[in-house]
Design goal:
five-stranded mixed beta sheet; three-stranded antiparallel beta sheet; alpha+beta; D-amino Acid Aminotransferase, Chain A, domain 2
Length: about 130
């Protein structure tokens, strides 16, 4: 937990929303979120292991992707492959599905949430919204 706390503190000091953690060139998760990338229409996130917190929101998003017919693969994203990905988002109970449009100084895509991220975000909001009826 200490490395995640220290990484989060550094992110806060840098005015970043989150710190992305990695081990041996493999992205594992955020300091308090799960990390997802989108490449060629496929959602990729680290596999369940002792290297990540298997969050509830992560599981819901994976299930939603399957319902939306969006291919999901649980595999590590390599640091040197980040530039190949078109979109990124993080998930957590408090952030829900949160688009990532900047990593370090690199703008992701157009600098706005991507199409697939917005589709997943919308489905998540629909699933979790409380009806006033």
């Amino acid at each position: 937990m200490l490395p995640a706390i220290l990484a989060n503190q550094k992110a806060v000091e840098s005015k970043a929303v989150e710190a992305v953690l990695y081990r041996n060139d493999l992205i594992t998760e955020g300091s308090h979120t799960n990390f997802f990338g989108i490449i060629n229409g496929k959602v990729v996130t680290a596999p369940k292991s002792n290297l990540i917190l298997a969050g509830i929101t992560r599981e819901v998003v994976i299930s939603l992707c399957k319902k939306l017919k969006i291919k999901v693969e649980e595999e590590f994203i390599k640091l040197n492959e980040l530039k190949k990905f078109e979109e990124f988002f993080i998930t957590s109970t408090t952030k829900e599905v949160y688009p990532v449009v900047l990593i370090d100084d690199r703008i992701i895509g157009s600098g706005k949430p991507g199409v697939i991220t917005k589709k997943i975000q919308g489905a998540f909001k629909q699933l979790t919204s409380v009806s006033s009826k």
